[in-house]
Queue: 3 jobs
Job 1
Amino acid sequence: MIVNKDKKYLRAVNIINNAEASPIPLLDENYKVFSTLTAILKHLLTEDEINFIFAFKRKTSQTMEQLKISSELSEEQIFEKVNNLTKKSVIFNQPNRHGVMVYKLLSFVRIFENSFMKDVEPSDYVEKLAVLFAQVFGELTDFYQEHYDFISNMIRNTPPITRIFPILENRQSEKDIEIILNEELEVPEEKILHLKNIEEIIEKFDDVAVGNCYCRHHKEFLDDPCKLNAPLKSCFTFGKTARFTSEQGFAKLVSKDEALKILKETEEYGLVHKSFHNNFDINKDIMAICNCCKCCCVISGENLIIPHVDTTNYLAKINYDLCKGIGMCVEKCINEAIQLNDEKKAVVSKENCIGCGVCASFCPEGAISLLEGSRNVAVLPRRRDKDPIIIT
């Protein structure tokens, strides 16, 4: 029997961390993250709520009848616990396809996302939570840097967790960006959905919700606002996830027309459209679309915290006859995949380009097209002890 309070919280850290795929690496040598995640749970949850978390230690998704057995609580007691924990984004409650309510334990990733997706007034409570998550991100960054070679090699061999939806219109000319079939790459029969399909995606779902970009909102509480001043209301959830986020006040249901208008506005700021799927599996239903900037997003650009793999169907291609070396593409690229060479011509790194189309959209000369072909791209933070890679 666990009697020590600190041990209870530490055990709960492991249960919550492993509630979904892609858990935070909690190795013995990464003890700082253990400590900070424990501090987050102590900040968020009562000891009584922690005791209820133990009911999910063997099965992270349960019906009411299953929870009665695993928690040894009455239905009334379970409802009380669940109502409190859904508001804190620790438990997801939505019916399954048979109409039976299922209670699913969420990971620290979801706790972070929904805590800062919602509108919250500045307070000591929220600011402390923001600082604690920033501390986790800093400790993870240090951990990844200390084990850079091992983690980089491991990440390259993991399945992708996000899909890229490219922008397909040049802002200057208002013409479609040229798409060229990349004959060197095998194009699957079922191609990745790109921007012109977003309308179909939104039409597919009865429920669409929009909330704050949790990355940008989190940075605001750290007095480090988005350098692009990009729209805050730009994080989309769909289907049962939209119903959950709206019911709990994390997001607001919007019409399909409103959703498309917001998506179009994010393109004006050069944000990258990334889709997320159930349990971080791109073969499962889409549950969210993020619109990422390079200065705030925890999975992109300068603020990259979480190494991962993106899947894309495009690769930027430069027309050197048209390229004037203006450098807009270099400035806008979220993944440092473009540089200007000695001849002041843009050069693309195939290894780093995620095919988002932002460079092609902003190029005033229309010098960038997109090569079509399915690719996976490992998105890794820059190594601190090495100079930036020079693209040749």
Job 2
Amino acid sequence: MSILRGGDQNDVPRVGMHGKEAISSCSCPSFVGARVVIELTVVKKGRQKMKTSLARHIISLHPVPLYAVVLASITSFVLLLIHMMGGQLWIVALLILLAWSPIFVRVTLALYRQYRWLAFFFVLLIAQSVHFTEHIAQMIQIHLLGLSSIQAHGIIGMLDFEWAHFIFDAGWVPICVYTLFFIFRKSNPWLWVLLLVVTWHALEHVAIMRVYLTTGIVGSPGLLARGGAIAGGLPLIRPDLHFLYNLVEETLILIAYVHQVKQLPGTSERTTPAQSSLVEAS
């Protein structure tokens, strides 16, 4: 005569089952809870391992000697001290860029030897980051130092003219993004979003350049800044609006770049040959 009823017998692991197999055969709350805890732990450890693997892969792809970083940092600090003692800001900024340029060249060449188009992506990322720094400086000058939008020229004021903005924002960046979109469009969804933002930003500068060439007016609002061609624009002055444009572009370029790095062989054991060929296109 069986001591357990038929329904209770299903709640006891059968002989011969071990570990996870035994737990999966049980329906009682204690065993179900243990199974959930085990699965959550495995998922958490797997995610941590993937993050660590990605970080290591990014570092290995961008080899920078420690001495080079220390030397560039010390040089930058000394140059900032020179600026505080009266040195012209734009000269100090150019010298700081020069101090970091060997690292930029080294990383770019290291990427180019393995993945040519990723090196191109990296150049765009750094160029946009430097450009965005100018917009950050302009925001500080306007909103913290009290300068007007006409007086606020960023760090390297000699480059604050319409042709420079047009060449970079309606020329260089769109050319780079459209090229990368053509290469990586099937593996990088972030480039689709970036393409839309960059296209609209370029149209803004086309409208601004049109006004400049026909009237000679510098600093026109374009399409969506306050007083712009589309319904009078938004309640934002042109520097504020274009700071937001560049903030969105910088964020999307960085996210798209990291996403592309994830597709490289070595970041995931499941990387397929098709993904590898997309990255290694030459």
Job 3
Amino acid sequence: MNLKTSLVTILFCGWMLYAPPTFASDFVTKGDIRKSTVEMFKPFFTPEKCDQILVDTFTICYDHERKSPTAVYVEVTGPTVIEDIDKRPPFFTDKRVEKDYRTTSKDYTNTGYDRGHFGASDASHDWDKKHQKATYSMANIVPQTPFANRYKFIALEKHEREMAVKYGRLENLTIAFWNNRPKKIGKSQLHVPSAFAKMYTDGKDYKECFFIWNNDKYDKSNGQDPNKYKQNCDVVTAMWGTQVGEADKWSMKDRDALIDLLDKYIESEKNQSKVGLATSLKNALK
């Protein structure tokens, strides 16, 4: 062995001995709720509550009727949330979800809703390509209004990263709520949530919970302050699974849309008796 080879060998061995721990070693649960010791998160991921429980780099409770995640558990660490991969991957349909209950990116086209990262955000998971890509599963995406997605969620996700840096490691839960008559969008007819909540904890002394409405009501003066959305954790937990918020009321837009449909029906229907009924309804709406 020549001198150059000997020096390289010595340097490599020294690096192996004294190199800082890898990011992977900072994780405890690796996003698997079954490995978590945070008991308040466990009831959200049971066969009684979830039609499917999907586990990869984070855990999803998936509802077939709503065609939506209802709860997502993630683990984030201080060293990883400060890393950043600029290039974003495309959204993809998650084939782990049973075929009849999957959603696609096209379900959101021209609906007015954003494809919102639900529990696992890009910014908290883009330290690694595999983890980043997983967040773009449509099983982790929900319809969010522009202000809910781009402002309210951004404020809470930023706070998540700040707390991960402060405490070193967090275990977090995101849950969704619906009203008694949720709007349905896309070919899949997925249900639009009325509200969301996030719960952050280090598994020890730190615990915070937040609640936001899925609407575009937003105060620019303090909307980026996470404290604006703070809520009692017991209250948030008790609300889950109940009807939260009011369904959309009848509007002039709904009336105009119905009149347009009646016009189409009247033009195509040959049964004059039915045409007469449709015409009467149309005139009553005006």
